[in-house]
Amino acid sequence: MLGIQQLTEKIKARELSAVEVVEKFNKTIAASKLNSFITPTPQQALAQARQIDEAITKGEKVGSLAGVPVAIKDVIVTKGIRSTGGSKILDNYLPPYDATVVERLKQAGAIIVGKTNCDEFAMGSSGENSGYGPSNNPWDKTKVTGGSSSGSTAAVAAVECVAALGSETGGSVRQPASFCGVVGLKPTYGRVSRHGLMAMTSSLDQVGPLARTVTDTARILQVIAGQDERDATSSRQSVPDYLANLPKDIKGMRIGVAAEFFADGLQAEVKELVEKAIAKIKSLAATIVEVSLPSLEYALAAYYVICPSEVSANLARYDGIRYGGRAGVESLADLYTKTRGQLLGAEAKRRIMLGTYVLSAGYYEAYYRQALLARQVIKKDFDKIFNKVDILATPTTPTTAFALGSKLADPLSMYLADVYTVPVNIAGLPAISLPCGLAGGLPVGLQLIGPAWSEDKLLQVAYQYEQSERWREQLPPGVKSVY
Amino acid sequence: MALTTKEVEHLAKLARLELTPAEVEQYAAQLGEVLAYVAKLQTIKGQAESSNPEGVNLRERFGRTLKN
Q1: Which residues are CB-neighbours of B20 under 8 A, at least 6 positions away?
Q2: Which residues lie across from A408 on neighbouring strands?
């Protein structure tokens, strides 16, 4: 299988045409049984591919992703292409503009092959909260893909696209990446523009890339990172060359290991594989340092106060008037309550009500204020860790992918699937998940966490580990690469 | 520590959500369970030390000149 660079080189050298590449992917997507796409865009993709081929024929300069088929999570808006956000309430929504990340991908020559399935408005850890049915894990179709970037991850794992965009609020790129055996990166808060990302928890949301290798992940990040004047929370921090450090060795680098991430509830096989991966990193001449994150136990609780609070406000815009579907016509109140009651899914309604509860007079102090306090404590604990080490290594998830349907009736057990990913979002940090082996035929992910703006270092350690093993070459059973 | 159905109905009213009786029952139990879990936040000690209550900088200072 080719990396992004080899693929674009072949297309630029006219050994392959972008149209040929896109036709193959269109075919794979049409034949997919994973429910990874809500809206495939074969015609638009072909039109884009023709433009790229024409430009190359004319000798015009094309971008770093020329002819590369990418998939976009449906919570990221695309001009004139249906963007549902995984919700029936936006079933017929055609956005009038492209999200900045989509605009940047297109400018770099990437080809959008479709909009991918996800939990409704990115709320979920299994993909099952989508209004369009769950995606299936390519490694075992009876298992969840993880979520909320379910379709993007399944599509990358099953080679239905070369790379994809997901979005993160509490682990929605890393957790499915771990479950489906691909690479997923959550950038530092403010690293990537959110203009055109449907808002869920504005103090946490961030767009992140998914790909089959660390190098391809770096190439996508390179294109989407950087300030955007249309997103006031995007940072002016300069964007380094994310590829420059990859080949450099990690000799002497200090890698932290915190016991809190290896506690009760961690599946034995996952623990074993992650410990092996850490030993491998040590063998690359890194130093392993024991550290501690005592506030870890508060992270998930803080998340499930902060997130629903912001959700209850952000989802107020879906009122049957400005966007999408509508139900109820007796009165304005009837229109609001019926539209929201009938067209929002169970998890959306659950979080809206939780948020409404914890922000109520009399409860605000006990819940929301305490959650903000926890957020500060967690941030400080991470600061202390990164005074001692360069990178923290942990499992991405406590278990491998669980069975479809197994956690639907028990939201709290579903929430616990994100226990190792959520602290990173709470502290606004970057982190990456990459494959570190198979347990019972299902992928296991290694998570690397770094201080703010350390994406280059995270990618470097991830790349050095990736190259020391051959997990990246493994494809799910029955999956064949078309490129 | 389930919520009462009356509490759930009140929340649904505040949030402009029409729920079926079965949903009200289900949410009463589920919301109660989540609230019991997040109650551990009440054991965190200390006062907010930063004037920024979020604990992380959500946006940089304004006043810069934006390029067109």
Answers
A1: none
A2: none
In a domain, B12, yes or no: yes
For the stretch B8-65, pLDDT in tens is 999 999 999 999 999 999 999 999 999 999 999 999 876 555 545 555 566 665 544 4
A202 is catalytic: no
Residue of A nearest to B58 (CA): A233
Is this model's pTM higher than 0.90 or not? yes
Task: Given the residues A17, A32, A126, A172, select the one marked as catalytic.
Answer: A172
Contact assessment for residue A184 and residue A164, using Cβ atoms and an 8 Å cutoff: no
Distance in angstroms between the alpha carbons of the first and the last residue of chain B: 55
Question: Are residues A344 and B17, on separate chains, in Cβ contact within 8 Å?
Answer: yes
Find how far residue A7's CA is from the centre of its chain.
23
Owning domain of residue B4: 1-44
CATH topology of domain A4-256+387-473: Amidase signature (AS) enzymes (3.90.1300)
How far, CA to CA in Å, does A431 sit from each of A20, A29, A258, A387? 35, 29, 15, 17
Residue B12 near chain A (CB below 8 Å): yes
Give the chain B residue whose CA is nearest to the CA of A338: B18
ipTM of the complex: 0.92
Residue B55 lies in a domain: no
